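Hello support,

Our group uses your service weekly, and this is the first time we've seen a run hang past the timeout. The protein is Sigma-70 family RNA polymerase sigma factor. I'm not sure whether the cause is the sequence or the server load. Input pasted verbatim:
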Amino acid sequence: MVTDPDVLDQLHRDHANALWAYAVRLTGDRAFAQDVVQETMLRAWREGITDETETSATSARAWLFTVARRLVIDESRSARHRREVATEVLPEERAGDQVDAVFDTAMIVDALAALSVQHREVVVRAYYGRATVAEIADDIGVPPGTVKSRMHYGMRALRLALQERGVTR
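Update from on-call engineer: The timeout came from a worker crash unrelated to the input. Re-ran successfully.
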């Protein structure tokens, strides 16, 4: 393992651009080519490969290009590569899982059932029926102040019922 950062920086400066261009030619993918260069340089660092450690048989550059080519080959043979399909167009928005919504609805229905009939009637008309205080007062035949009071205490009771069921803020 090479520990001198200057030696590693020099290796990167000397070979990274040519290595990246080579990987782009092999893959046709600029981002993946960058990943190949990074992995190749990491392996060079781990193996202690530098321009200063050249042997008569191979140079650091040849070693880097060989490692890069093998990384590309390994990726093309991988199961992930065979199963993934690259596309420029994203699919339509994915449909979310409705399980959480069903459980939330069931919990709210259960909590609403814990309210008194008068409180539940006002809360349901206001939140699910989108009725105003005046409309609710006219529909059930009570003064608007009574509707507001029932709404206040109904929401308070609903909050407590939901907290009892494990719902927190």
